[in-house]
Amino acid sequence: MNIVVCIKQVPDAASVKWDHEKGTLIRDGVQSVINPFDYNAIEAALSLKDQLGGKVTAVTMGPPQAQDAIREAMSMGVDAGVVVSDRAFAGADTLATTYTLSMAIKKLGTVDAVLCGKQAIDGDTAQVGPGLAVRLDIPCVTCIGEMEVIGGGKALRVKRMCEQGYDIIEVAFPVLLTVLASLNTPRVPSLKGKMRARKADIPLWSADDIGADKQKIGLVGSPTKVFSTHIPKFEARREMLQGSVEEQVEALIEKFKEAGII
Amino acid sequence: MVTVDIEKCVGCGECEDVCTFGAISIVDEKAVVDQDVCTRCGACAEACPEGAIEVKGEAGLSGQDRVLEDWKGVWVVAETRHGNFAPVTFELLGKGRELAKDLSTELTAVLMGKDIKAQAETLIVRGADRVLVVDNPALENLVDDVFARILARLARDEKPEIILAGATAMGRSFIPQVATLLETGLTADCTGLEISPDSRNLLQTRPAFGGNLMATIVCDTTRPQMATVRPHVLKALDPDPSRKGRVVDVELEKDLFNSRIKVLESVVEEVEGPGLTDAEIVITAGRGVENQKYIALLEGLAHCMEAGIGATRAVTDAGWLPGRAQIGQTGVTVSPKLYMGFGVSGAIQHLVGMQGADIIVAVNKDPDAPIFDIATYGIVGDVKEVLPLLYQRICQERGIEDA
Ligand SMILES: Cc1cc2nc3c(=O)[nH]c(=O)nc-3n(C[C@H](O)[C@H](O)[C@H](O)COP(=O)(O)OP(=O)(O)OC[C@H]3O[C@@H](n4cnc5c(N)ncnc54)[C@H](O)[C@@H]3O)c2cc1C
Ligand SMILES: Nc1ncnc2c1ncn2[C@@H]1O[C@H](COP(=O)(O)O)[C@@H](O)[C@H]1O
Question: Which region, left, alpha or beta, applies to residue B343 given φ > 0 means left and ψ of -120 to 50 means alpha?
Answer without folding.
Answer: left
